[in-house]
Amino acid sequence: MRAVAFFDVDGTLVPGISSAVYLGGYLGHQEAVAEAEAAWDAGLMDPRSVEELDARGWAGTSEAQIREWLEDIPLVDGIAEVVEWCHAHEVVPALATLAWRPVGEFLCSRFGFVEASGPTLEVRDGIYTGISLTGSDEFKKRDFARDFANNHGLTLSGCAAIGDSLSDLPLFAEVGLAIGFNATQKARALAHTNHTGPDLRAILPAFEAWLGS
């Protein structure tokens, strides 16, 4: 293994909308989730409150139903090819994300990411209760990535991160290669390289150059 590549989900692999807002369209609280996420971005609401608000909307929904809805989640092009490239070049692809665990698990199963972070929802008999069992903040991604890298005999300086926004900044500050993909101004400023567009394969030249350096 040469490195770990940590991919963000919302705003990076899922473009234009967060996975929570997407699922909120089915769960019936899309507008409330979108407003809460905007308030967090503006510093007007803490992430735990956003998480709890969203979690309540999951109450009474089955794991199977969420999985079915995720089959149609909007995604950028090129994810499968980038994950395949990682495996072929001894780079471990993982998801460092604040998206709910079911979202990360779905993407791992579909594309071959090896692990995903993300908050956990309580489930009883296959049904979500509406209770969030874990909290989230912008440091959770970095902490997950650091532990994951250490378990694979690496430091974050030997890893890459691909992300777009506020919650990626602590991880961007510590990895050897930070790639902004359709990133906000703050994330672009901290990234080593930036790419925009609908296809994740745009990041591969930067990856190749970094691995070869």
TrEMBL record:
<dbReference type="GO" id="GO:0016787">
    <property type="term" value="F:hydrolase activity"/>
</dbReference>
<comment type="similarity">
    <text>Belongs to the HAD-like hydrolase superfamily. SerB family.</text>
</comment>
<dbReference type="InterPro" id="IPR023214">
    <property type="entry name" value="HAD_sf"/>
</dbReference>
<dbReference type="Pfam" id="PF12710">
    <property type="entry name" value="HAD"/>
</dbReference>
<dbReference type="GO" id="GO:0046872">
    <property type="term" value="F:metal ion binding"/>
</dbReference>
<keyword id="KW-0479">Metal-binding</keyword>
<protein>
    <submittedName>
        <fullName>Haloacid dehalogenase</fullName>
    </submittedName>
</protein>
<keyword id="KW-0460">Magnesium</keyword>
<dbReference type="InterPro" id="IPR036412">
    <property type="entry name" value="HAD-like_sf"/>
</dbReference>
<dbReference type="InterPro" id="IPR050582">
    <property type="entry name" value="HAD-like_SerB"/>
</dbReference>
<keyword id="KW-0378">Hydrolase</keyword>
